[in-house]
Design goal:
about 375 residues; mainly alpha; about 0% strand
Length: about 375
């Protein structure tokens, strides 16, 4: 039973106050995280930290499992990236597992294995690690690789056959950048490496569809088709100097700004996160802005980048579908705060009104008592 002195309105107001406080306390951790994630949407490093922390809190064994999977897949570079991630987030790993990763990395970096991958990159023009990329870039710096790709795709264009215009444009741009690299004594080398890696990613199908479509349009703009047709009509890898000069003449430098920026960003990722980190980024990217975000992530996280991309996917670069759910947490927290304030206001008003009404009733009772016993008032009046 509720005492009769307490009005039902006050009881309801207090109940609303307690309920809104309880809901707010339950929602606050989620709302705080949602606000932090939304605030970090332009900072890929901070955004990934927040999401990784939540992921590790819910499943601390995920890092060890990922390391085992990477070793089983013959990817010690990815396993090493997860070790670095565990160290950053203070996740304990079995010492034997860490040693296995170190041994696998050492075996991959053995001189014989490195030399073989370098030769493979030089001859085939395909790279998936630092050694093979070095071989691929070496081939492009000696213009062999770009001439091979430009002549092949250019002849497809002349013959009216299916042409990979992205590879054609990248090879043409690469020849121009190679010349700039020599002139600047290596100053343009990161861009050169970036363009080579984009071209390689295209060849092996590791370029995201959205990014491939954008790069294809950009590459089409940098090539003067009539001049290129003339260049490849008589071009040959057996005459590299003459062929390279003719192909460079078909390059529209004024149209290549976006493509060069892409190569620069890919070069930044390669420098900080390695070739495979750059390839992982290109696979996830849907446009040049995603690649620029990946470059910022790689510069901040270095060797952890591959592990972060593996765990979060495109969520490491930007807010994805979860943004709506985050907004709902914030909206719910605001509603609970509004309910708490409204209940507090109602409780205060009703408690104040009850106190005033009680005082009025006391005064009224005293006045009634005085009126009922006038003899108590007369002496005072005479005095």
């Amino acid at each position: 039973m509720i005492p009769q002195r307490i009005k039902p309105g006050i009881v309801l107001a207090v109940a609303g106050l307690l309920a809104s406080a309880a809901v707010g306390a339950a929602w606050w951790p989620h709302a705080y995280r949602a606000g932090a994630v939304i605030a970090a949407q332009e900072d890929p490093a901070r955004l990934s930290d927040l999401q990784i922390a939540v992921l590790l809190k819910s499943d601390s064994a995920i890092v060890a499992r990922q390391i085992e999977e990477a070793l089983a897949a013959g990817d010690p570079d990815l396993a090493e990236s997860f070790v670095a991630l565990a160290r950053e987030h203070r996740v304990a790993l079995d010492a034997a597992l860490v040693q296995r990763v170190s041994d696998a990395v050492a075996a991959e970096k053995a001189p014989t294995a490195v030399a073989m991958r370098f030769a493979t990159g030089l001859v085939t023009g395909q790279a998936d690690d630092v050694a093979s990329l070095s071989g691929t870039v070496a081939g492009d710096l000696f213009v062999f690789g770009d001439i091979r790709d430009a002549v092949r795709e250019g002849k497809h264009l002349v013959m009216g056959e299916e042409t990979d215009r992205l590879v054609l444009g990248l090879a043409t741009a690469g020849l121009a950048v190679t010349a700039a690299t020599y002139v600047s004594v290596g100053g343009a080398a990161p861009v050169r490496a970036g363009l080579t890696l984009v071209k390689d990613a295209r060849k092996v199908g590791r370029l995201g569809e959205g990014l491939a479509a954008w790069a294809g349009r950009s590459a089409r703009e940098v090539v003067d088709a009539p001049l290129l047709q003339q260049a490849v009509a008589s071009g040959s890898v057996l005459r590299p100097g003459e062929t390279a000069t003719a192909i460079r003449a078909a390059f529209r430098a004024e149209k290549a700004g976006a493509l060069i920026r892409l190569g620069k960003d890919v070069g930044r990722i390669t420098e900080k996160a390695g070739t495979r980190g750059a390839l992982d980024s290109l696979k996830l990217a849907e446009g040049p802005k995603d690649v620029a975000r990946a470059a910022r992530l790689a510069e901040a996280k270095g060797g952890q980048t591959r592990a972060i991309l593996k765990l979060l996917g495109r969520g490491a670069l930007l807010l994805t579908a979860g943004a709506f759910n985050l907004a709902l947490w914030l909206f719910g927290a605001l509603l609970s705060l509004f309910g708490f304030i409204a209940s507090l206001k109602a409780t205060t008003e009703r408690a104040t009104q009850a106190w005033i009404d009680r005082g009025k009733r006391r005064r009224l009772r005293r006045m009634q008592a005085a009126a009922a016993r006038p003899e108590l008032v007369a002496p005072a009046a005479c005095g």
